[in-house]
Design goal:
By secondary structure, the protein is α/β, with parallel strands linked by helices. It has eleven helices and eight strands. Helix content is 53%, strand content 12%. Strands 3, 4, 5, 6, 7 and 8 form a six-stranded mixed beta sheet that branches.
Length: 294
Amino acid sequence: ISDNNSQDGTYEILQQYATKDKRIKLFRQPKNIGGLKNFKFVLEQAQTPYFIWLAGHDIWHPQLLEKLLKAFEESKDENIILTFPKFQIIGTEISYGYEGTEKLDDPIQRYIFGFNVICDIIYGLWKTDILKKLRIREIFAPDRFLLLQASLVGKFKSVDEVLFFRRDTGGALPLQDAIAYKIRTVEGKEKLSKIISNKKIKYIVYPVFLMREGINTLKEYLLFIKDTEKFGVNLSLQQKIYISFQTIFSIFERFIKIQYFSLKGKINLQFLVQENLERIKEAKKKIEKMEKRI
């Protein structure tokens, strides 16, 4: 457990549990390092064959680990690197799940699928050695970037049972606020963050930083596509060009769409689930067309 320098008594509660159960390894950050770095930190400490993240606001079914591990053990496909369950939004009857990619041998088809699922599935059970090789970056939607890398490297297996309960924490920040937050917490530039948050001059300053975030995000994706051989994925030049164009289109489409709906106050977990289920339908159509061409 990595306590991200909490100031509300959480660490003292964790210490009590760590004293009672010696299996618990407890760490405390000297300062708040941000969510993504804290996620990366606990992964780096892991020394087990399998690894799973648990965020503080969600709830596990008591048999979550057992059933996700069983899915690995029962699979004869060594290319399975992630198992994940169905999800339910806490306080609602809304549950949702996704098909796995264990039937897709083509990494390009898996990549297309990976662009069109909600990123909840990163909270599934991973093969630790594979996950540690992937790049975790401070970019727009780093969870999506992680999943897309993983989709090229291996396959995802779904468990058709609600085992994970997501809390809708109120929706995504408008991109302007998200960028300001990143500049304040990750880059440590408090004054610049306030300038970007200033609604009076946002139309002058904000577009510059929005473009910067878009370029940085796209750069990381394209660098990974260029380096796929380092991850054991051998793609032809034609395949790399194809997924590069898919990536460019999808990133800027997401930027525009999320910005529009977040300003309208319409983005929450239910919205994201529905939007991604619609995108999966489109992804399946693309995959079917690819299979016909083959």
